[in-house]
Amino acid sequence: QIIMAMVQDIVIRQAAAAEGLVLDSANVEVQISQARAEAGEEGNAWAERLRQWGLSSEDEYRDRLEVRDLAAQLRNLKTPPVAPAEDELRAYVEANAARYAGRRSSRILLLRTVGMSEEDLLAHALNIRDQLRWGADLGTVAAEYTRTTNGSTMNGDMGWDAMNSSSPEYQAALNGLWPGEVSEPVVSEAGVTIIKCTDIYVLPEDGMVVYEWVPEGLRQMLSDQMAVQMQENSYRSYIDGLIRNAVVVIEPMPAGLPYAE
After folding, report:
1. DSSP string covering 59-77, please?
2. DSSP E strand boundaries for the chain
3. What is the pTM of this model?
4. Could you report the per-residue pLDDT of 25-45, keeping only the tens digit for each?
């Protein structure tokens, strides 16, 4: 398995070179810098993090990121995403939509900060709640106020609640909302959250999924999900074909090496 993983990496690099693809070295170095910062600077924190990932050195991590970058470029070049056919999408939605039954929400999370009292934080949250209830766009407000990874980058969208592991406080507040409604401030250990219900999907009593009754937003999400799976399957077939057609020579272990004894 280790040897075939190495073969795959070599084949990807060769295919990328043949297609004239250029490695985004700057992005690779940014990812390494971010990973180092997250590991921390104390002692051997970075080396320990690499060991946890099954890597022996930073150079090995760099190699992995380089292959990942080239593979992503190859995937988009050789197996671009294709929208699923209508009958295939209908079957996929009717087979999978039930898993997402429930509510979809967006949120604005106000984190506790040094110097801000609990009263001021709650007053700030109430002001945001009023803005949303008066018709302010949640994405715009979220981009301004949210300080979490799924704030400005996702416009506050939390997706369907079946996809998330929300706190009991969050889930209880969301369960009391209908599409378009905005919650009262929800206080938790993280801070104060304002929740807006953006959609809802209720299964019939018999549990049967009817394509036309599935919300458009959920149908689109499943369509995107199916397109990604189809692209990945095509890409996997493409890479497997390259490996089958490659001339792979596996040399025997050299004699006299300490780790070969």
Report:
1. HHHHHHHHHHHHHHHHHHH
2. 102-111, 157-160, 186-187, 191-201
3. 0.73
4. 999 999 999 998 888 877 788
